[in-house]
Amino acid sequence: MSETDPVGRPLGPPHDGEYPRPESARMVTGPQRAPARAMLRATGASDSDLGKPFVGIANTWNEATPCQYALKEVCAAAKASILRLGGLPREFGTITVSDGIAMGTEEMRTSLVSREIIADSTELMMRAHGYDALLALGACDKGIPGLLMAAARLDRPAIFSYGGTMLAGAFGGQRVTIQDMFEAVGAYEVGGISLAELEALGHVACPGAGTCAGLFTANTMAACAEALGMALLGDASIPAVRPARIAAGARAAEALLHLLRIDLRPRHILTFEAFENAIALVAAMGGSTNAVLHLLALASEAGVHLTLDDFDRVSRRTPEIVSMKPGGLHTMSDLHEIGGVPVVLRRLLDAGLLHGECLTVSGETLRRSLGPRPAAPPEEFVRPVDRPFRANGAIAILRGNLAPEGAVVKTAHATKLHHEGPARVFDREEDALRALGERRILPGDVVVVRYVGPRGAPGMPELLAVTAALVGQGLGETTALITDGRFSGATRGLMIGHVAPEAAVGGPIAGLRDGDTVRIDVDARCLEAGLDASELAERARATPTGPAPAPPGALEKYRRLVGSAAAGAVCSSGGFP
Ligand code: FES
User: Fold this and answer.
1) If you measure from the C-alpha of residue 379 to the centroid of ligand 1, how many angstroms do you get, rounded to a whole number?
2) Collapsed DSSP state (helix, strand, coil) of residue 115
């Protein structure tokens, strides 16, 4: 029996009625519910178990991808904690799509769709079986936002705990990640490395269990879960292969029982200020542009009115102070060695750049949870706010006649913020990849990949295969890319995504033609073509191309439901009345 809760308060043995259990009591109490009790006894529950709070454990564990591999043991430890504290754990699985595996194929369309399936399936399991609280165990890019979206939607006591990051590999004296693997494909295509070298890298780039090792999307979102207050501090950076990962799952379970006892719910935690904290963290660390999409979607579920302008505003006031891959030097496990995400949060809080009074799943405010100031981290890794890597944060929102609703760019460790050049327009990702393979993309070009938005693809795939090929071919500094699709957290270079409205709904990007001049000016927050908006609109109406057909099933259904990337690409009205 743990004697204290995660913030050190006494946690005595639970007794009857100690925990609110409104959902499970409704499910199992009274003569009418005798069949439900019979079914539950067949799962091994005793009569006394039926009087305990039911704790749903949504687990994205599966064998599809290394990102998930720690979660089986994490879940076992969490279950033991829940039982010890007087709850009845009920584990259920939900899905994962591995972007690292699907990337560069048309199956990448399934990725963002999976976020909705994770949220929906978790919601339905929790509702259907009367679970009083949610332990959300997840990893990979969509597991984290999907589970958090379900938590916000249900608004029952909930906590997130992570599957953990992968360690970096080693190759030729360099530390490598999956990002190097994708860029090596581009280098191979231009003869920069041999096939043998490409294959040798492939044997060491991913050395074991865990999520993609840099500050790519999964690690960005795990860090956001801490900043939002939905995960215990320190949870995000613990590597998947460390025993501490398993202990973190047990700690999260204990904290969840405390949340249930004090009835602290996700919407108490997920306030507008909490979202500003998460945006500030992404801006300071150079996190993935996918955080924009996912935080918008999560805010929608929580009934919080968050817009693209909030990202630009918070990012402008937040200095970029952390050096993490893909733009910088370090991996998530490196961050763990210097104290994890709390080190960055503490630095931002001390500079007045966070809202310290936001509540967290510890039951305390962020300020109290962060505790005393940690030892100063190395400056080549985490800078003081008055000597940042860049004065502004890593996310910028661009607008102009090509993106009247907005577009997203990551500027982390950017060497170039302006570009003007001729458009090279592709209506399919594979056409852009073919042009790159045939060396038809030239310095100065603006590669345009369209009809790959939420509705267009459908599913708004990430274009890491294209962006990495540009970098691998040595074109990363001399070209730019714009798309109504999105990017992997491993993308670097001047890449503008989430262009909205997307081509598939007649957005101006559909009116671009080869050779049109495109101007990108990040400082001026501008993305425009050298044409009148009316001419772009006329051309978009007349364009003979439309979105590719969607196969019947999940993708076709998603196309009918999904909204604009500028609002998070959500499929429902969320938490708004
Ligand atoms: Fe799962 Fe990268 S594929 S985190």
Assistant:
1) 28
2) helix
Ligand 1 atom index nearest CA of 101? 3
Choose the catalytic residue: 24, 111, 323, 488. Answer: 488
- Ligand 1 atom nearest to 68, measured from its CA: 1
Contact 103, 179 (CB under 8 A): no
How far is ligand 1, taken at its centre, from the CA of residue 218, in Å?
6
Gap between the terminal Cα atoms of the chain: 42
Residue nearest atom 2 in ligand 1 by C-alpha distance: 212
pLDDT for position 468 = 87
| Closest ligand 1 atom to 211 CA | 4
Q: Which of 408, 407, 409, 415 is nearest to 390 (CA)?
A: 415
| Ligand 1: lining residues by beta carbon, under 6 Å | 65, 67, 98-100, 140-141, 211-212, 218
Is residue 114 among the annotated active site residues? no
Separation between Cα atoms, residue 152 and residue 133, nearest integer Å: 12
Following DSSP, what letter does each residue of 382-429 receive, concatenated? B--TTS-SBSS-SEEEEEETTEEEEEEEE-TT-S--EEEEEEEEESSH
**Residue matched to tokens 């995000």:** 236
Q: CA torsion sign, 75 to 80 to 86 to 88?
A: positive
User: What parts of the chain have a pLDDT lower than 70?
Assistant: 1-17, 577
pLDDT in tens, 478-520: 999 999 999 987 787 899 999 999 999 999 999 999 999 999 9
Q: pLDDT of 145-203, one tens digit each? A: 999 999 999 999 999 999 999 999 999 999 999 999 988 988 898 899 999 999 999 99
3-state DSSP assignment of residue 481: strand
φ, ψ (nearest 5 deg) of residue 80: -60, -40
